[in-house]
Write a structure and sequence with these properties.
The complex is a heterodimer.
Chain A (H helix, E strand, L loop, with lengths): L3 E5 L2 E5 L5 H7 L23 E4 L3 E4 L10 E3 L3 H16 L15 H9 L3 H4 L18 E3 L9 H9 L5 E4 L6 E4 L15 H5 L5 E3 L7 E6 L8 E7 L2 E7 L12 H5 L14 E4 L2 E4 L2 H19 L6 E3 L5 H13 L5 E3 L4
Parallel strand pairs in A: 1-5, 15-16
Antiparallel strand pairs in A: 1-2, 3-4, 3-5, 6-9, 7-8, 10-11, 11-12, 13-14
Helix pairs in contact in A: 2-3
Chain B lengths: L3 E6 L2 H5 L2 H14 L6 E6 L11 E4 L3 E3 L7 H9 L10 E2 L6 E2 L6 H4 L17 H6 L4 H9 L2 H11 L11 H21 L4 E2 L3 E2 L4 E6 L8 H8 L1 H15 L3 E7 L3 H16 L15 E7 L8 H8 L24 E5 H13 L1 H5 L9 E8 L5 E6 L4 H8 L9 E6 L5 E4 L9 H6 L8 E6 L4 H15 L5 H18 L7 H15 L3 H5 L2 H9 L1 H9 L12 E5 L9 H5 L5 E4 L2 E5 L9 H5 L7 E5 L4 H5 L1
Parallel strand pairs in B: 1-2, 9-10, 9-12, 10-11, 13-17
Antiparallel strand pairs in B: 1-3, 3-4, 5-6, 7-8, 13-14, 15-16, 15-17, 18-21, 19-20
The structure holds flavin mononucleotide, iron/sulfur cluster (SF4) (6 copies) and FE2/S2 (inorganic) cluster (2 copies).
The site of one FE2/S2 (inorganic) cluster has 12 residues of chain B, from helix 1.
C-alpha cells in the first residue's frame, strides 16, 4: 500500500508515509550503501555512506530522511561518490580484511559496500593501514567480540537498548580509541549482558560472531522447543547436525527475536548424553525401553497407587518447555485421575 | 569611603603564580601601616593581561603593578602611605621599545581594546554581589521584569544584532524567538494532554535555558575568565533569557577542570537567591527561575549543542546527525532548550540597559558588538582581549599584541581554536568578524588566537592542532575519526622526512571529504588548520617532501647542526655538552659534528658561547662527506 510517490534516480517509487528514503529504496530492491542502518532500529546516521541528494535541497542521509511526495532523489553524483568512496576506503584501510578466514564471509555488509564502490587498489595504497590489534573477548560461551572488525556502527548498542532493553554495551573512549565497551571495559560475561545474541544477529561485520563458523547446508523452519512462547525459528542443519539458529522474522510471536536458549541452546540435540528413548529402572539400573513399555508401566503404577492410597496420592509436574495447550491438557489429565496436585517447573 | 583601592587579580593565571598570598600579605601590610580606612584591598577576577601576572592595580589612577611577588607588597603599601607611585621595577615595560608605562590605560594592550563583556572582570570582586550591584548589576533584570514583555526582550536582542559568541555566530534573538515559540507550543500541548501537572502539583518545566561553559579548546580561557571575574553577569543574562523564552530552570554546563569558576558560580547563585534575583516570584513578579550547575567531564565534543544535552542527561555526549529538530525545539529531556555561550549571556545586560541601537552601533554590518580572544603565542603581549568586531588582525597582533618580540618576523595567526585556520601576513588586514574570517578559511570559533613567528613550522603546527581534534573525535563518523587519523599519519610522515609527492593532494582530498561528510562541527572543521596551511604555506610542505628540509628548522629529521670552521674557537664546550658524543675535536682543533651520530638535540647550539656563535642550525640534512668538504 503506497501512500507516497517519489523518485529515485528517475524511477517512480511508492512508499508508506513515515518511511525513510533508505527503507523505501531497499524495499524496492534498490541498493544504497549503508552500514549503520538496521530496519529494526531507530536511525543513527553515523556512517554517512547512505548520503544522497534531494534535487533542489542538497545532500542528506537517506536513512534518516523521511520520504516526501514528489521529491527526486539522486543516489550518486561526483560529490557524493567522492566522499562515499573515501569513507569506504577509510573503513577498509582500518579493517582486518582476511575475508576468507572470517565467519561473515559472503554475508557481510562491509563486503557489500566494498563491492558496490569497487575497490581501486592504487587508491587504497595511498592510505596507511590502521588496523589495530586489540584483544578479542571470547568470554561468552556463544559468541566472540572482535573489536578489530568493528566499524562503530552502533547497531549492537541500539539493539541491546531498544530491542532487549538491557543496555549492556555502549560507545566508550574518544578518537581512535573509541570502541564498543561494557561498563568499565570488562569482559562481556561480567556485564549485564544476557547473551541473547540479538546484537550478534544484527552486527554488519564479524565484530560480533557466533562461535563455530561452519555454515549449515539447509535451513529448517520450526518452533523453538524451549518454552511456551513458541518463537518461530530457522534451524541451520547439515546432515543430522544443528549448526545454527535464527529467528523467523515473519513469525508474529517473536518477529525474528530469540532468547539465549532458542538462539544458542541447541547443542543438546547431538549430545551423547541426550535421552532418546525412555529408560526403566530394573534391578537398580536404568535400561532402555520402548514407549509402549514405559507408558504401560506408568499406567500400571498410577492405578496401583490410586487403589492403595486414593487419587490424592498422585501428582504431576509439567514443564515450561511445552505449550500452554499441552499444559492445559496435562492438568486436565491429572484432574480426570482425581488429583489437584499439579505443579510446574517454573515454580521449582 | 576609602579613597584608594588596590585590586589584586585572583584569576586562575595569577592565583597559580601565588596571587592569594599576595592579597593576604598586602592586606596585612596596609593594616600595619594604619591605612585600613583609606585604602581598600579587593580581590578581582582576571584582568586580562595574565602574561604580566600576578597583577595588582591601584585605582582610581589605574597604576599597574606587574609580576608582583609577596616581597613587593611592603613597597606597594609604603607607596600608598607616602602617596607616591610604587617602585618602577613593578611597572610594565614595553617589550619592543623598553619604555616604562605605569598606567594600564596607556598600554596599547588595553588602550586599543573595547571592553564590554569584560568591563567588570578585574574590576569588581566576583564573590561579592554588592560589588556587582554597585556597577549597575541586575538593573537590566529589573528593567526587563518591570518594563518589558518577553516579546519586547526578544525584539531588543534581535535588533541588537548580537550573534552567538560560542563559535557558530547564530543570531541570538532569532534563537530566543524560536525557543519561545516552541516553549509555548509545548506548554499548550502538555496542558491539553494533562501531562503538565504531576501528582501533587509538581510541574515539569516547559523549557530550559542552558549556558555552555564547556570551553574545551586548548589554550582558550575567555569563558573561564568571565565566570571567574563576573559570574553575576552570566546569571543575569540567563535569568533574562528565562523570562524571554518562558523557562523556569537554567543549567550551567561547566567543565569540572574549572574549580574556581564553579566555586564563584556557586557563591554567586547563592547570593542571587538571597537577594531574590533567583527563585520564586523574582523581584515580586509572577516569574520563577532558578539555576543549577552541572560539571562536565571535559570532553571537547560535549561543547556541541546536541552532545551537551545528552551529557546533561547523563548519557555519552555524541552529536546527533541532521536531519533532526533544533535544540530550541527538542533539547534537554526533549523540551525546548535555549543554549547560549557564557559571553553571549554576559552581553545581554548591556543590550538591555544601553539599548539595541547602542549595541548595533558597534562592530560591522553583519557582526555586531565585540569579540573576545585569548591572544597567545609569539606576540609581545598575551592575554585576554575584547575588541570591536571588524578590527583588523594586524591591529590585534601589532597594536594590542605589541608585535613579535626578539626581532623575529610574523608568520601566521591561527584563529578559532584547534580547528581554526592559519592566515599568513598577506591576510593581516582581514577584518575580524564572523564572515570575513570564514571566507579566509579561518573562523571566529570560540576565540582562540595563536600568533606564530618565523621559527614555527606550519606543517608541525597543523599536526599539533589535528592531533588534538583527532583525539577528541567522538568516533561515530568514519570520515571524522579515521580520516583525521590518516591526515595525522601523513603529517607525521612529512615531518619525519618520509613525505610522498602525492601526500599534499591526498591531504586536500581527505580534508574536503571530512568537512563534507562529518556530522558535527568538530569533523566539519578539523581539517582547517591543514587545509589553510597547505593553501597559504604550500612551499613549506613542498620543502619537507621534495627537499627533505624544514625551513623553520623545527622538524628534527629535516634539519642539521654544523660548526662553522671559521668561527669555532675549539673551546670544547659543545664537545663536552653533546649527549651522544657526536662532536670530534680537541684543543686547538676545529670541532666537527658527526652527522650520523647527531640526534639534533640542539645542546651544542645552546652552549656555544654567544661571542663565538660557531654552531648553526640549518634546514635539511647534511651528510658527513658534504660537511667535511
Ligand atoms: C565540537 C564543538 C565544540 C563546541 N564547543 C563549544 C564550547 O566549548 N562552548 C560554546 O559556547 N560553544 C561550543 N560549541 C558551539 C555550540 O554547539 C553552540 O553553537 C553554542 O554553544 C551556542 O551558543 P551561542 O549561540 O551563544 O554561540 C561547540 C561546537 C562544536 C561543534
Ligand atoms: S567482517 Fe566482512 S569484511 Fe571483515 S573480514 Fe569478515 S567478511 Fe571480510
Ligand atoms: S547479547 Fe543481548 S544482552 Fe548481550 S549485549 Fe547483545 S543484545 Fe545486549
Ligand atoms: S560490534 Fe558490530 S554492531 Fe557493534 S558497532 Fe561494531 S560493527 Fe557495529
Ligand atoms: S526459549 Fe527463548 S527463543 Fe525459545 S521460544 Fe522461549 S523465548 Fe523464544
Ligand atoms: S564529526 Fe567527529 S566529533 Fe562530530 S559527530 Fe562525527 S565523529 Fe563525532
Ligand atoms: S645537536 Fe645535539 S647531538 Fe647533535 S652535535 Fe649538537 S649536541 Fe650533539
Ligand atoms: S546508513 Fe545512513 S548514515 Fe549510516
Ligand atoms: S589571571 Fe590575573 S590577569 Fe588573568
Amino acid at each position: 500500500m503506497g501512500e507516497i510517490t517519489f523518485f529515485i534516480d528517475g524511477l517512480k517509487i511508492e512508499a508508506n508515509e513515515g518511511d525513510t528514503i533508505l527503507r523505501a529504496a531497499l524495499e524496492q530492491g534498490i541498493y544504497i550503501p549503508h552500514l549503520c542502518y538496521h530496519p529494526d532500529l531507530k536511525p543513527f546516521g553515523g556512517c554517512r555512506l547512505c548520503t544522497i541528494e534531494i534535487e533542489g535541497r542538497g545532500l542528506t542521509i537517506s536513512c534518516k530522511t523521511p520520504v516526501e511526495e514528489g521529491v527526486r532523489v539522486i543516489t550518486e553524483n561526483p560529490q557524493i561518490n567522492k566522499a562515499r568512496r573515501i569513507a569506504a576506503e577509510l573503513i577498509i584501510a582500518n579493517h582486518y580484511s582476511e575475508c576468507l578466514q572470517c565467519a561473515r564471509n559472503t554475508d557481510c555488509r562491509l563486503q557489500d559496500i566494498a563491492t558496490y564502490i569497487g575497490i581501486e587498489e592504487g587508491r587504497l595504497q595511498r592510505l596507511k593501514r590502521t588496523v589495530r590489534d586489540l584483544p578479542i573477548d571470547d568470554s561468552n560461551p556463544f559468541f566472540y567480540r572482535d573489536p578489530n572488525k568493528c566499524v562503530l556502527c552502533g547497531i549492537c548498542v541500539r539493539t541491546c537498548e531498544e530491542i532487549n532493553g538491557v543496555g549492556a554495551i555502549d560507545f566508550a573512549f574518544r578518537g581512535f580509541a573509541t570502541k564498543i565497551s561494557t561498563l568499565k571495559d570488562k569482559p562481556i560475561t561480567e556485564s549485564t549482558c544476557e547473551s541473547c545474541g540479538e546484537c550478534v544477529d544484527r552486527c554488519p561485520t564479524a565484530a560480533l560472531a557466533r562461535k563455530g563458523s561452519e555454515r549449515p547446508a539447509r535451513e529448517v523452519k520450526t518452533i523453538c522447543p524451549y518454552c511456551g512462547a513458541g518463537c518461530g525459528i530457522y534451524l541451520g542443519v547439515r546432515g543430522d547436525r544443528v549448526l545454527s539458529a535464527r529467528g523467523d522474522r515473519q513469525n508474529p510471536v517473536n518477529n525474528g527475536q530469540l532468547c539465549v536458549k532458542g538462539r544458542f541452546g541447541y547443542d543438546f540435540v547431538n549430545h551423547p548424553d541426550r535421552l532418546t528413548t525412555p529408560l526403566i529402572k530394573r534391578n537398580g539400573t536404568f535400561v532402555e525401553a520402548s514407549w509402549d513399555e514405559a507408558l504401560d508401566l506408568v499406567v500400571a503404577k498410577f492405578k496401583e497407587a490410586r487403589e492403595e492410597y486414593g487419587p490424592e496420592a498422585l501428582g504431576g509436574l509439567s514443564s515450561a518447555r511445552v505449550t500452554n495447550e499441552d499444559n492445559y491438557l496435562f492438568q486436565k489429565l491429572l484432574r480426570s485421575l482425581g488429583t489437584n496436585s499439579i505443579d510446574h517447573c517454573a515454580r521449582l | 569611603m576609602p579613597d584608594k583601592t588596590v585590586l589584586v587579580c585572583q584569576g586562575t593565571g595569577c592565583v597559580s603564580a601565588g596571587a592569594e598570598q599576595i592579597h593576604i600579605s598586602l592586606e596585612r601590610e596596609i593594616a600595619e601601616l594604619g591605612l585600613g580606612g583609606d585604602v581598600q584591598v579587593k580581590r578581582t577576577g582576571c584582568h586580562g593581561f595574565c602574561q604580566q601576572g600576578p597583577l595588582a592595580v591601584v585605582e582610581p589612577e589605574g597604576i599597574f603593578c606587574t609580576r608582583v611577588k609577596v616581597e613587593d607588597t611592603p613597597d606597594i603599601a609604603q607607596s600608598l602611605l607616602s602617596q607616591k607611585k610604587p617602585p618602577e621595577r613593578l611597572f610594565y615595560r614595553d617589550p619592543l621599545t623598553g619604555k616604562v608605562i605605569p598606567h594600564y590605560r596607556d598600554i596599547t594592550f588595553y588602550s586599543r581594546q573595547q571592553r564590554t563583556v569584560l568591563k567588570n572582570c578585574g574590576y569588581i570582586d566576583p564573590e561579592e554581589i554588592d560589588d556587582y550591584l554597585a556597577v549597575g548589576g541586575y538593573e537590566a533584570l529589573r528593567k526587563t521584569l518591570l518594563e518589558m514583555s518577553p516579546e519586547q526582550v526578544i525584539d531588543t536582542v534581535k535588533r541588537s544584532g548580537l550573534r552567538g559568541l560560542g563559535g557558530g555566530g547564530f543570531p541570538t534573538g532569532r534563537k530566543w524567538e524560536s525557543c519561545r515559540r516552541a516553549s509555548q507550543e509545548s506548554r499548550v500541548e502538555s496542558r491539553e494532554s494533562g501531562r503538565k501537572t504531576l501528582g501533587s502539583g509538581l510541574q515539569t518545566p516547559d523549557s530550559y535555558v542552558v549556558c555552555n561553559a564547556d570551553e574545551g579548546d586548548p589554550g582558550a580561557f575567555q569563558d573561564r575568565s568571565v565566570l571567574e571575574g563576573d559570574p553575576h553577569s552570566v546569571l543575569e543574562g540567563m535569568i533574562i533569557a528565562g523570562y524571554a523564552v518562558g523557562a523556569r530552570v537554567g543549567y550551567i554546563y561547566v567543565r569540572a577542570e574549572y574549580p574556581l569558576a564553579v566555586k564563584r558560580l556557586e557563591i554567586a547563585i547563592a547570593q542571587a537567591r538571597e537577594k531574590g534575583f533567583l527563585g520564586k516570584n523574582i523581584l515580586g513578579n509572577d516569574f520563577d527561575f532558578d539555576i543549577e550547575i552541572f560539571q562536565g567531564a571535559g570532553a571537547f565534543v560535549c561543547g556541541e549543542s546536541t552532545a551537551l544535552v545528552l551529557s546533561l542527561e547523563g548519557k555519552r555526549g555524541m552529536p546527533k546527525p541532521l536531519p533532526r529538530p533544533r535544540t530550541t525545539q527538542v533539547g534537554l529531556w526533549d523540551k525546548p532548550t535555549l543554549l547560549n555561550n557564557v559571553k553571549t549571556f554576559a552581553s545581554i545586560r548591556w543590550i538591555i540597559t544601553r539599548g539595541a541601537d547602542w549595541f548595533a552601533g558597534r562592530g560591522t554590518k553583519k557582526s555586531k558588538g565585540t569579540a573576545i580572544f585569548s591572544l597567545t603565542g609569539k606576540t609581545a603581549n598575551c592575554g585576554l582581549i575584547e575588541v570591536p568586531m571588524g578590527i583588523s588582525l594586524r591591529e590585534i597582533v601589532f597594536d594590542i599584541g605589541g608585535g613579535i618580540p626578539g626581532g623575529k618576523a610574523f608568520k601566521a595567526v591561527q584563529t578559532g581554536g584547534p580547528s581554526g585556520g592559519c592566515l599568513p601576513a598577506e591576510l593581516l588586514d582581514t577584518p575580524v568578524d564572523f564572515d570575513s574570517l570564514t571566507d579566509a578559511g579561518a573562523m571566529m570559533g570560540s576565540g582562540g588566537m595563536v600568533v606564530v613567528d618565523e621559527d614555527t613550522c606550519m606543517v608541525d603546527l597543523a599536526r599539533y592542532f589535528l592531533d588534538f581534534t583527532q583525539k577528541e573525535s567522538c568516533g561515530q563518523c568514519s570520515l571524522c575519526v579515521l580520516g583525521t587519523l590518516q591526515m595525522l599519519n601523513i603529517l607525521n610522515s612529512i615531518t619525519c622526512g618520509r613525505g610522498r609527492p602525492e601526500d599534499i593532494d591526498l591531504l586536500i582530498e581527505l580534508g574536503e571529504a571530512i568537512k563534507m561528510g562529518s556530522i558535527c562541527g568538530l569533523g566539519q572543521t578539523a581539517p582547517n588548520p591543514v587545509l589553510t596551511t597547505v593553501r597559504y604555506f604550500r612551499e613549506e610542505y613542498e620543502a619537507h617532501i621534495y627537499e627533505r628540509k624544514c625551513p623553520a628548522r623545527v622538524c628534527k629529521d629535516l634539519i642539521s647542526y654544523r660548526i662553522l670552521p671559521d668561527k669555532c674557537k675549539a673551546c670544547m664546550i659543545c664537545l663536552r655538552g653533546c649527549p651522544v658524543e657526536a662532536i670530534t675535536g680537541g684543543k686547538k682543533q676545529i670541532h666537527m659534528i658527526d652527522q650520523d651520530k647527531c640526534t639534533r638535540c640542539g645542546v651544542c647550539l645552546d652552549v656555544c658561547p654567544e661571542r663565538f656563535s660557531a654552531v648553526e642550525c640549518i634546514p635539511g640534512r647534511l651528510d658527513n662527506t658534504l660537511h667535511s668538504a
